[in-house]
Design brief:
Layout: E1 9-10, E2 16-20, E3 23-28, E4 31-36, E5 42-46, E6 49-53, H1 59-80, E7 83-90, E8 95-100, E9 103-107, E10 114-117, E11 123-127, E12 135-140, H2 143-155, E13 166-169
Antiparallel strand pairs: 1-6, 2-3, 3-4, 5-6, 7-12, 7-13, 8-9, 9-10, 11-12
């Protein structure tokens, strides 16, 4: 039995789950999410607890058992509490600001600014404080979408290993390389 897949999912108060034709719809105070589930995987809702079952012990069934349990759990957590990701921009002259609603403007040392249009499910906030690195805060009820947007933003200027300049997650440790060392004479 999959260690992840066999764990039950408790549905908190204020969240409704609807299972119909292998499509799970989760509604809560933060939004609504839908997920299509493989017909071979069984999903039951009893007394506020969701249980996932699989038909056999084949490798594919075991993998999907844990996968769908994790996806449904993330949906329930997202509509109940939401997910937040914080990214900081390290580098002289690098900036982040909100140019219009749902549009993030990044100045990252290129000859042009980068504009990122946010999907309607994602809220974005950019803070620029004196003597601190610019901070981008993204919030959403959809964990997959949030991760995808963060990866896209990070891909514009990944942290480089010498000075650490670029876009990184708050708390992320960048492995540094030592620079040139002068040859001893």
């Amino acid at each position: 039995m999959s260690r992840i897949g066999k764990l039950p999912i408790t549905v908190p108060a204020g969240v409704t789950v609807d299972i119909k034709d292998n499509i799970i719809t989760v509604k809560g105070p933060k939004g609504t999410l839908c997920q299509k589930v493989n017909p071979a995987i069984g999903v039951e809702l009893e007394d506020g607890v969701i249980k996932i079952s699989r038909p056999n012990d084949e490798r594919e069934s075991r993998a999907q058992h844990g996968l769908y349990r994790a996806l449904i759990h993330n949906m329930v957590e997202g509509v109940a509490h939401g997910f937040t990701a914080q990214m900081e921009i390290v580098g002289v002259g690098y900036k982040a600001e909100i140019s219009s609603p749902k549009v993030l403007k990044l100045t990252l040392g290129f000859s042009h600014d980068i504009y990122v249009q946010m999907p309607p499910e994602v809220e974005v906030d950019a803070k620029m404080e004196r003597n601190k690195n610019p901070l981008i805060t993204l919030t959403s009820c959809d964990k997959q979408l949030l991760g995808q947007i963060c990866a896209k933003i990070r891909s514009f200027r990944k942290p480089e290993p010498y000075k650490g300049k670029g876009i990184k997650f708050v708390g992320e440790v960048i492995r540094r390389k030592s620079g040139k060392s002068a040859a001893a004479k």
